[in-house]
Amino acid sequence: MPTRQCPYCGQPVHDSLAECPYCHETIPELRAAAPAPERPDVGRTKIRRGLLCMLLAAVIHFFAGGYSAMKLPFPIQPVVTIYLAPLLFLAGLGLSLYGFLFAP
Ligand SMILES: [Zn+2]
Q: What is the pLDDT of residues 51-91, one digit of tens each?
């Protein structure tokens, strides 16, 4: 016989009873945990990540390209400013556009 514990007095109570036979409290009905809903903000997360990538690319381009007055203590390969920072920027743009247009 499937039993469960009364939340009020702790006695084992038959599963089908709605009232505890010992303390006569109403036992709240057990409900199976609802399956986790699909995350609704998945598109917004992609947009946010894409914008963050674009911001990071702009910051990298600003400092690595020598636009700031700050002198960096180490040399930066020109491939960073020529290819990698624009690539990161475009990837971020694509990700945010994907989140904006296609993700639910
Ligand atoms: Zn009880």
A: 999 999 999 888 888 888 878 788 888 888 889 999 999 99
Cα 19 to averaged position of ligand 1 atoms, centre (Å):
8
pTM over 0.70: no
Cβ atoms of 8 and 23 closer than 8 Å: yes
18 and 50 together in one domain:
no
Q: Quote the domain boundaries for residue 22.
A: 1-31
Cα 28 to ligand 1 centre (Å): 11
Rounded CA separation 37/64 (Å): 43
Q: How far is the CA of 1 from the centre of ligand 1 (A)?
A: 18
Q: How would you class 101 by CB atoms within 10 Å of its CB: exposed for 0-12, middle for 13-18, buried for 19 or more?
A: exposed
